[in-house]
Design a protein that fits this description.
This protein is an all-alpha fold and 131 residues long. The protein has five helices and no strands. The radius of gyration is 18 Å and the shape is elongated. The two termini are 15 Å apart.
């Protein structure tokens, strides 16, 4: 019983913690707008524009905290959307190997988090049905 409880806690917390770390990772990429010679307004607008996906995923994470299916769908769709953007860039500029690395690093993590939320959702449904 004790091991099962620890597994349930791990399944509950891992997608949430990974989501927070992933959002921090994505937000880190926006720091490239901070350059010498830019005004405060340019930097502020640049940071806001670069972090729009982070803001959207943060809101969806807040909704997914209690309803895991929202997190599963949101992170899976975010991964698909990113693959679409990279594929579009690939078609416009030609194939480069680093496009695949981008897909694995961004969309792969997003898909993994979505799968973890889905696992959490199915485990919750099983516990509700057995209770």
């Amino acid at each position: 019983m004790r091991i099962k409880n620890k597994i349930n806690k791990f399944i509950y917390w891992s997608p949430r913690i990974l989501s927070i770390l992933f959002l921090c990772f994505l937000a880190m990429f926006s720091l490239d707008v901070i350059e010498p010679g830019r005004t405060i307004l340019e930097i502020t607008v640049g940071l806001f524009m670069h972090n729009i996906p982070v803001f959207i995923l943060t809101a969806l994470l807040a909704a997914a905290w209690k309803r895991e299916i929202i997190g599963a769908i949101a992170f899976f769709l975010a991964g698909l959307l990113y693959v679409g953007f990279v594929t579009k860039a690939m078609l416009e500029t030609g194939f480069e190997w680093y496009y695949l690395a981008w897909i694995v690093q961004i969309a792969g993590i997003s898909f993994f988090i979505g799968m973890m939320f889905l696992l959490n959702w199915t485990k919750r449904k099983e516990r509700q049905q057995s209770a």
